């Protein structure tokens, strides 16, 4: 019998502090109207001083375990997608493992910037299909606020903090129908975060995110259009077979372009961008969790998740929830 993975439970966590566009406009030359029109973002959450990727991951993971109605001890693989880890090492997944008091199983991080969760989900799915894992905890958790230059109006308006989690379990039927991941390192200079210990493009390089927004925008729209086609073709499905689009939340105009490609009304697109901004690897699991919890996504429905980000790295996952 073939083996698949299916989503048993989901969880999410957002820090308490809300940062509005108006508050940002007090410190940089921008306005609420400009940000809403160009991005769809009204506010975002900012992690407290003592919060980290692993502490937020713990909240999201505990909620996912609770909704899956399983004990943490039954997890046999922990994967955390983050580009804002607590430490260089140990991995955030190991720190989460300790927080959850899970012993012995493998735990590692995946770094694929904003596509990290889709990458992590794809890896988890392969482990389950191969019979190497039965229950996997997959988390996206980010404190993007700590890699943002708060004096750069072209980037500081875009990002937010949070964590989302899913518990996968082996099943006889999908579940996850397919995942598709890609990357192309030739675009590395369009969107990156310098590393104090690594490659420096110039003496001015600090530790903050750099982005050529309009270039990223154009490539993101084209690439996401292609991955939608690839995912439908791989599963022999029509656009009309998809009930919900759960996109990475980078810009409402990028999301709208992908929905248009799918001929999907915006009412069937899960959007958190207005209140959360871009939470990088956390954005897809946070959106998925929200739409499952509020009853929009129902068991048996077809859900297409996609993401695009630094690398460039991009990907999709098609699930029958
Ligand atoms: N407030 C007001 N004006 C701003 C601004 C802000 N926060 N940020 C930039 N501008 C200005 C620019 O300086 C520029 O001014 P100029 O014409 O005088 O030079 C003008 O707005 C247009 O800039 P541009 O970068 O072309 O705007 P845009 O329509 O592309 O919107 C982004 C900028 C960042 C919102 C958009 O490019 C974007 O969302 N890009 C992709 C982001 C993304 O997906 N990133 C991560 C992938 S995970």
Automatic annotation (TrEMBL):
UniProt keyword terms in alphabetical order: Acyltransferase, Cytoplasm, Fatty acid biosynthesis, Fatty acid metabolism, Lipid biosynthesis, Lipid metabolism, Multifunctional enzyme, Transferase
Cellular compartments per GO CC: cytoplasm
Catalysis: reaction(s): malonyl-[ACP] + acetyl-CoA + H(+) = 3-oxobutanoyl-[ACP] + CO2 + CoA
Pfam families: ACP_syn_III (PF08545), ACP_syn_III_C (PF08541)
Annotated Beta-ketoacyl-[acyl-carrier-protein] synthase III C-terminal domain residues: 232-321
MF-aspect GO terms: 3-oxoacyl-[acyl-carrier-protein] synthase activity; beta-ketoacyl-acyl-carrier-protein synthase III activity
Record-annotated active site: 114, 248, 278
Beta-ketoacyl-[acyl-carrier-protein] synthase III N-terminal domain: residues covered: 108-185
Pathway the protein contributes to: Lipid metabolism; fatty acid biosynthesis
Segments of this protein annotated with the region ACP-binding: 249-253
Localization of this protein: Cytoplasm
GO aspect biological process, one term: fatty acid biosynthetic process
Similarity remark: Belongs to the thiolase-like superfamily. FabH family.
NCBIfam families hit by this protein: fabH, PRK09352.1
Record note on domains: The last Arg residue of the ACP-binding site is essential for the weak association between ACP/AcpP and FabH.
Subunit structure: Homodimer.
Annotated protein name in UniProt: Beta-ketoacyl-[acyl-carrier-protein] synthase III
High-level lineage: Bacteria, Pseudomonadati, Pseudomonadota, Gammaproteobacteria, Methylococcales
Gene name of the encoded protein: fabH
